[in-house]
Design brief:
The protein has about 300 residues and is mainly alpha-helical. It has 2 domains: about 100 residues, Cyclin-like (Cyclin A, domain 1), CATH 1.10.472.10; about 120 residues. Helix content is about 60%, strand content about 5%. The two termini are about 35 Å apart.
Length: about 300
């Protein structure tokens, strides 16, 4: 990732952009494929191109906009996406950025990229088939849910440290992590075939050519990341939002930010001219867009 000392995109900025994409995915009720494809484009683009922090929002939202088209989904209006994401660019900028990303990375239409989500789905069905062959189908269906795996994987890919792990390894570690808690609570004497499912996981690790030290490091990273997320110990990403109000709403709205209930005493003996020359202090400033219809409220 780029160095902050050179005024370039940092790991924190990348993770923040990933969280915004996850929020947009939920806002537009998009499938997980769009989110994983968009973050995949963002990481590949940042690895290949040098970009400034002010362009990070446009790059990430532009990647999401591109992936919706790439996966042949209902097109999202660029103006609406810019307004919801508040990426501080115009719809034209968003479309141009999507075209740049597509050109630089050679994005193919109607092609779903291979991501960690792809491997999670493959491993899920492989483990499920093995579990049913071992007579552990009911146990597996109760212990593992594909929707839950996809949700946890979304949390992991919003962390740059987890993304640095190979996609196939991250997916296998996640599935094994989910099974660990249930296998440890499962009485082996009740069904000795449970060890066969563990052996199957070990064989998959060997077939994927994942060394034990790397697997254990990734396992610790996944457990720590999910634990911090569940305990809400990780500093949440904070995005400064701008509220846009119509002129009619602004006329009846009374801003209460930094409202001071103790007003200074008015000196009634001063002349009118002197009172008019006094500067006026406002708790907030207003700026309007080009059309002047939607003033923007920006608090100091």
């Amino acid at each position: 990732m780029l160095d902050a000392n050179d005024n370039e995109i940092t790991v924190g900025a990348r993770d923040g952009a990933a969280h915004v994409l996850r929020c947009l995915k939920m806002w537009y009720d998009l499938p997980p494929d769009v989110l994983f494809a968009a973050i995949n484009l963002v990481d590949r683009f940042l690895a290949r191109m040098r970009a400034r922090p002010k362009h990070m929002a446009c790059i990430s939202v532009g990647s999401l906009y591109l992936c919706v088209t790439q996966l042949n989904m209902a097109k999202i209006d660029a103006s609406d996406l810019v307004a919801i994401s508040q990426c501080r660019c115009t719809p034209g900028d968003l479309e141009r950025m999507a075209a740049i990303i597509s050109n630089k990375l050679g994005v193919q239409p109607s092609t779903i990229p291979v991501t960690a989500l792809t491997f999670v789905r493959i491993y899920y069905h492989m483990f499920r088939n093995a579990a049913f062959q071992l007579g552990l189908g009911d146990f597996y269906d109760k212990a593992i849910s594909l929707a839950d795996l996809e949700l946890r994987l979304e949390i992991l890919i919003c962390d740059a440290l987890c993304v640095s792990v190979r996609a196939s390894e991250l997916a296998l570690v996640l599935v094994c992590t989910q099974m660990d808690a249930h296998v440890n609570n499962y009485v082996s004497s009740a069904n000795p075939m449970i060890s066969g499912l563990v052996d199957f996981a070990i064989e998959l690790q060997k077939m994927a050519k994942i060394p034990d030290p790397s697997f254990f490091r990734s396992h610790s990273l996944v457990v720590r990341t999910l634990t911090q997320y569940n305990a809400q110990k990780k500093m949440p990403y904070r995005q400064r939002l701008v509220w846009k109000l119509s002129s009619r709403t602004m006329r009846i709205l009374r801003p209460t930010h930094k409202l001071n209930s103790h007003l200074p005493t008015i000196d009634e003996h001063k002349t009118i001219n002197n009172s008019r020359s006094l500067p006026r202090h406002r708790s907030c400033s207003f700026s309007s867009d080009d059309d002047g219809e939607w003033p923007t409220l920006v608090y100091n």
